[in-house]
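Cross-posted from the bioinformatics board.
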Amino acid sequence: MARAKAPVRDWTRRRTAKRERLAAVRPFASGRIVDAARTGDAVQALLRPGDRVVLEGDNQKQADFLAEALAACDPDVVHDLHLLIASISLPEHLDVFEHGVARRLDFAYAGPQSVRMAQLLADGTVEVGAIHTYVELYARMFVDLIPDVALLCAEQADRDGNLYTGANTEDTPTIAEATAFSDGVTVVQVNELVDRVPRVDIPGDWVDLIVESPRPFALEPLFTRDPRHIGQVEILMAMLAIRGIYERHAVTTLNHGIGFDTAAVELLLPTYGEELGLRGKICRHWTLNPHPTLIPAIESGWVESVHCFGGEPGMERYVAARPDVFFTGPDGSLRSNRVLCQLAGQYAVDLFIGSSLQIDADANSSTVTEGRLTGFGGAPNMGHDPHGRRHASPAWLGLRAGEPSALRGRKLVAQITQTFRAGGVPAFVETLDAVQVGTDAGMPVPPVMIYGDDVSHLVTEEGVAYLYKAAGPAERREAVAAIAGATPVGRDADERRVEALRRDGLVALPEDLGVDIRRARRSLLAARSIEDLVAWSGGLYDPPARFRSW
Amino acid sequence: MARAKAPVRDWTRRRTAKRERLAAVRPFASGRIVDAARTGDAVQALLRPGDRVVLEGDNQKQADFLAEALAACDPDVVHDLHLLIASISLPEHLDVFEHGVARRLDFAYAGPQSVRMAQLLADGTVEVGAIHTYVELYARMFVDLIPDVALLCAEQADRDGNLYTGANTEDTPTIAEATAFSDGVTVVQVNELVDRVPRVDIPGDWVDLIVESPRPFALEPLFTRDPRHIGQVEILMAMLAIRGIYERHAVTTLNHGIGFDTAAVELLLPTYGEELGLRGKICRHWTLNPHPTLIPAIESGWVESVHCFGGEPGMERYVAARPDVFFTGPDGSLRSNRVLCQLAGQYAVDLFIGSSLQIDADANSSTVTEGRLTGFGGAPNMGHDPHGRRHASPAWLGLRAGEPSALRGRKLVAQITQTFRAGGVPAFVETLDAVQVGTDAGMPVPPVMIYGDDVSHLVTEEGVAYLYKAAGPAERREAVAAIAGATPVGRDADERRVEALRRDGLVALPEDLGVDIRRARRSLLAARSIEDLVAWSGGLYDPPARFRSW
């Protein structure tokens, strides 16, 4: 045989390292349970310079107590860490770099910390591997960014390490799986140690260390939109979207991004949608977080199912009382799961619709605006046509194209935006700010959120552009311009070409869709305030304090 | 407020139905444990006409005992079931339809049963919803195909329902999650009931009923390829792939499909790859099942990590002894997970390369050949460029294209095939058989496995075509034809155009890549037999009986 002499090799180095790490933590723990007062010592004892460390910073929940412990490590002992974190949202996430504990960063989103992030990058304090979407970052934890240590969070744990995540399951099972099965060390901060968890979201033998945090983990109500702030323009756009996209394509499975534009759609279903006789014909199956603005549609019998990426503070009792609609455990509370909801959104859902801050003439869009290195979150995964899909649905087939031998349908990817943002800033621009931000940050390609050639529909207050029908980039640009209003992209639109595009079905104005602009009033909203949502919920929705005005 | 009068509604119908179903099974069970002799009665008592039932039929493991029980149900009692099953591989899977128990089917793959499947479809005995890829089918279980009952399988369970899957975790956690958190009923056949499972792969409170099967679940060694059957042509193609794709693009993260072509690549790494000085530069991180033909590369220090969709019989002891490379639990055995490995393959991996049975002039390819409605499996998910990816790598960036404002990289999607299959059947054809099969089966679009415009590289024994460089469909066809040999697609290739394509870098012949055809001999394989693989493994690989010839 051709066997070369194989080098002698130890194949259990990670297992040995894990044993040594856990031994080093022993003085600060009793079995699996770390003494909360010694959390800093335990984290420091666990880590080795250069370690690849996941810090759970999800879209919503944050392992904030462990983040503080990490930031407080002695940089003479723990340094050059490679931090993996989905969402950079707490000051501690960047303190870790300023204090010299970590050096390299792979992340997905940096909303509240985006300005400081850009600064630290410019200073060379942070060395960025790449900016990912959430699921890309998790995907790499199984390939080339396998964690040495994961710092996670959950609601409760029992003494065997079984974890209860409650409604915000989010990303904990995925990160725990990547770490536990690669002989990494999983450390979890929990709000409460209990004798028996109400249900097991993550099995105890995946968990090495637990610390009972002195305060509950941080959690933001990111998906709550107060209907009070929905104005006539959002309502008009929602009417256009319902008639021009949902009804026309018979969209039964869908995902909504965050924002007032799609919240308006949710609040028009029980009124405008009902008038149009669309209940049961559209919007039956959803993948999205438990948006409070979806309550009226649920209560009116529009919604058969909702699978969630994460939870939403205040929606706990409502969700628990609607188990036929939401995915809940035997304990009654939501089980969310970002990776599975992303999978569902990508492969089982016909429409993604989301708001954008900037759109260029080619329909490329981005929420990255000047100076802010925000990253991507999950929109790019939802906002593209997955070429790996093979099952058909009426909505998907309605956009079919290609040679007969390779005919295929297409996912509906819609962008919705007013032509001008607050303060008269045009939403349609010649060049996305993202291009300059990308250049400044030394990114190899510009941080575009959704590529123009993936966008099938564009909605503004002017009308709907059916970009999927465009014969090529030139015609796509014409269709974008036709509904871009008086922005730099729209103001030179040729009126006769717009008429031709209407005739050819590439552009529809409100009158083409039978939408009466005069009806775009707040009285058409099923709920006009948070208080209304509480009433719709039969008192089951508990809005966070900041949303209570009564 | 605008609240419409909401209809009075029961929001806990699924929970009530679950309680009733479990009550009906009580006579045949003691707590969670079903009396194996009464499995048929239990399954029949559990089901209601019209139920949506998942039967675990994964790519590899099969809940065969429960499949028999299902097929034996009385069709007067249980009928019109809607069956969801990933892989139709056992006769019982179709008996269920012939016996009148089930009517509707959503599935992903029908390898061994594909001929009978096509027949039952033509007879109207089976009503097909759609043919999916694996992950699409799972995705829909969270959206519009939420299961009422799931019939699953695992290695072991304890009396609290905690499941141990061993190496073939595959799809059980995903299906269990979809079912358990939607108030569906999960029933699991296990090979063994134990007091304590070696590790918990699925928590007990996700599991309703357990039956100890009288025999272990069926499991096929689908990913084992005997090096004895690798000939000079496969070796030549592997050399071309290594030099023309892996080395040229510095591919460090990858997925291999099943087949002798890619097995040859695996077996050339420690020999030809070593000579070229490529160790550490290519093929470091893998997403694929534990292929026995990867053993020599692992032993020679090429492979840093492997994450797996499923397991492979015979590889258990070897994998357990190489925990630094494979994802294993504290019990030592593999933890696989199809959904997470697919996620990794889609978003973290730079190259997919797989064999195809037929390729047309536009590079569309399919393994569906006449009369066989095989379906898709997982290749389409791996074999496309995910537009939702946002992080860069050298390999991905090497294929970048687009306007500067929307510049992006691209996944390498390679197809590898000889120009003629066994028996002189051309692999390159004017029209894929899939087109006719799709028409005959009434499919809305032809069942193409991988679309031509997603294929970046094509390898035959003639050379490599760099299709991603083609300026358009016409040039892509020329590049395909240039390496399609004497097939209907290749025989009219214009020699002068081929020269031009070589000059422009769209086509590379062996001499262009520095590949010496004379070296394409079996002596270049690191292992030339299953026995060699056992030796490489230090006796840790236990090949299934059918692969043992000594």
